[in-house]
Design a protein that fits this description.
With 215 residues, this protein is of the alpha+beta class. It folds into two domains: 94 residues, Glutaredoxin, CATH 3.40.30; 103 residues, Up-down Bundle (Glutathione S-transferase Yfyf (Class Pi), Chain A, domain 2), CATH 1.20.1050. 49% of the residues lie in helices and 10% in strands. The protein has eight helices and five strands. Strands 4-3-1-2-5 form a five-stranded mixed beta sheet, covered by helices on one side. Helix 1 links the parallel strand 1 and strand 2. The radius of gyration is 17 Å and the shape is globular. The structure holds glutathione. The site of glutathione has 12 residues, from helix 1 and helix 3.
């Protein structure tokens, strides 16, 4: 098994964007393997062999196969040291935010998913998830009051994980600009070297990323 990081994902996927942004901000080299969700490639036997849930992303590294974007962020932080908080308390707090993200910010992804990809289903579904998504964004905005990052005094996997799934909020008609702390935090992330938005970062085809040795 190769020492190179190999990420399987899709360009429309916020779950793919999360580890991909980590790698871009860290300046690490990696290989990208595209999975065409529209054609159902994620449900084919070859993909199910590496992701039992029939989803993206998947990270392969050495003899390991990892799925679930937040588990992948945890692994990348542990093994590379990038975006890992400095104290043990903060390391656990970052994982706590990732767990909250999976409960709450997922509603932002649901609103975006049904609004953008499923115009055929009842808008009642979007209507159900929208208040939950708005509440999650409000909570994040309030938590960022008077602070630059979610945990400690530096960007961590907590920020990358939460932002990575919020990134498509506008596609669901949800506004970050209306929330000043969240908007300022987003702008801080966007100013970091290596930052890119999903459609600029995630290719539609397999690709090799050379990385940036200076970060
Ligand atoms: N909890 C998972 C969610 C993964 C997920 O929902 N992936 C979506 C793309 S963002 C997917 O593969 N959808 C295709 C499908 O479910 O068939 C994670 O964080 O990795």
């Amino acid at each position: 098994m190769t020492d190179r990081l190999i990420l399987h994902g899709s360009f429309t996927s916020s779950s793919t964007y999360k580890p991909m942004l980590f790698l871009a901000l860290s300046g690490l080299p990696f290989s990208f393997r595209t999975v065409n969700l529209k054609n159902g490639v994620q449900k084919e036997a070859a993909h199910l062999a590496i992701n039992r849930y029939g989803q993206v992303p998947v990270l392969r590294h050495r003899d390991l196969t990892l799925v679930m974007s937040n588990v992948i962020l945890d692994y990348l932080a542990r093994t590379t040291g990038h975006f890992e908080p400095r104290t043990e308390q903060h390391c656990w707090q970052a994982r706590e935010w990732l767990s909250w993200e999976n409960d709450a910010i997922t509603n932002v992804a649901r609103v975006r998913h049904f609004a953008r990809f499923r115009p055929d289903v009842s808008q009642d579904i979007v209507g159900f998830f929208r208040p939950l998504a708005e509440a999650a964004l409000d909570f994040a905005d309030k938590s960022l009051q008077g602070r630059e990052w979610l945990v400690g005094d530096a960007c961590s996997i907590a920020d990358i994980g939460c932002w990575g799934r919020m990134v498509f909020a506008a596609e669901g008609g949800l506004s970050l600009d209306a929330r000043p702390n969240l908007a300022a935090w987003r702008d801080r992330l966007m100013a970091m070297p290596g930052f890119a938005l999903p459609y600029d970062l995630i290719p539609k085809k397999d690709a090799e990323f050379a990385g940036a040795t200076s970060r």
